[in-house]
Design brief:
Layout: H1 2-24, H2 30-47, H3 55-92, H4 101-104, E1 138-147, E2 150-159, H5 165-180, H6 191-197, E3 202-211, E4 214-225, E5 239-246, E6 258-263, E7 269-274, E8 279-282, E9 285-286, E10 293-298, E11 305-311, E12 317-321
Antiparallel strand pairs: 1-2, 2-3, 3-4, 5-6, 6-10, 7-8, 7-11, 9-10, 11-12
């Protein structure tokens, strides 16, 4: 009796459970249980609330990851470069003997180099020579001072040699216009003059003076050898290109006319010794690329020049002259 009752109770419990599962849809066969489970999960999913997507946080996080990736990449590149430099230095030191700069730990500096444009065929083009323009003179003050309370300046206008007779005629017309402004009586240069005197290896130098900034009528023209041309003067002489004494024609400088003369490049200083005592000095000045230098010295009032002495840069005497100022 007791055992049967227990079985009956178990059966009742089993029956009640079967009714509940069936009510939920899990009773019956396997297909029905799967369908019931899908329905329950669908209802659960429908009850879940979905909030706003945090786009700003997602973007910020992505940027942080990108920055970390870049830092890691740059660090790896730096390590590789450092390793390459160290490796190259180690390889460069191979084969050096004792006492080399690398072994001593010295820093070897290299002199700066100028970059030269490559010419045709990839060869380095040589430095270009200065342009010699026969129509544009280079004007240089070769000396200055005071005479009778007035400021004087000695000038040299350097006209490079013209390479053709046509250019020589044009150059002569420009020189005439330049000089004619101070000396209206100056005749024009003609084609016949050019045919007689033009040489493609001779530069022209116009020597003149200004007083208080005004060009004076007194001037002089001189021929000088162009660079590379043979010099007809005696090679041992210190002077070259001739010279002139200005300030006499119009009496502009009174008792103190000015000598302007040419010398060779090796002359570094000209010293005039006066018969009344004292000296005057002048440093020759270059004109463009001309091999002739020019200096100017004013006469000491009431004195005669005993000697003009030409000195080299080392102080040695290159020559003497006693002709200037002696006849005045």
């Amino acid at each position: 009796m007791t055992n049967e009752g227990n079985e009956g109770n178990e059966g009742g419990v089993g029956g009640e459970g079967g009714e509940d599962l069936a009510g939920a849809g899990f009773g019956g066969g396997g297909e029905a249980a799967a369908a019931a489970a899908a329905r329950v999960l669908s209802e659960l999913a429908g009850s879940v609330e979905i909030g706003v997507v945090p786009y700003d946080r997602l973007v910020a996080g992505g940027r942080r990851r990108l920055r970390r990736r870049r830092l890691l990449t740059s660090g790896a590149v730096a390590v590789l470069v450092a390793a390459a430099v160290v490796g190259g230095t180690a390889l460069g030191g191979l084969g050096r003997g004792p006492g080399d700069a690398a072994d001593a730990g010295a820093v070897v500096a290299t002199a700066p180099t100028a970059t030269v444009a490559a010419g045709a065929g990839g060869a380095a083009a040589p430095p270009t020579a200065p342009v010699r323009d026969p129509f544009t003179p280079a004007r240089v003050v070769v000396g200055q001072g005071t005479a009778n309370g007035r400021q004087w300046q000695a000038w040299a206008a350097f006209w490079p040699a013209a390479t053709t007779k046509e250019d020589a005629l044009r150059q002569a017309q420009l020189i005439w216009a330049d000089r004619h402004a101070a000396g209206p009586q100056l005749p024009r240069t003609t084609r016949a003059d050019i045919d007689r005197s033009w040489r493609p290896d001779v530069d022209l130098v116009n020597l003149y003076a200004t007083v208080d900034g005004q060009r004076q009528v007194d001037d002089s023209m001189h021929d000088t050898p162009a660079p590379g041309a043979p010099d007809g003067a005696i090679i041992d002489r210190a002077t070259s290109g001739g010279g002139t004494m200005l300030g006499l024609k119009g009496g502009e400088l009174g008792a103190s006319p000015v000598v302007i003369a040419g010398v060779r490049p090796r002359v570094a200083k000209v010293v005039v010794t006066w018969d009344t005592g004292g000296v005057s000095e002048s440093v020759p000045v270059a004109l463009g690329d001309s091999p002739t230098r020019w200096y100017a010295i004013a006469k000491k009032p009431g004195a005669q020049a005993r000697t003009f002495t030409y000195y080299a840069a080392d102080g040695s005497v290159l020559g003497t002259d006693a002709s200037w100022f002696r006849s005045y």
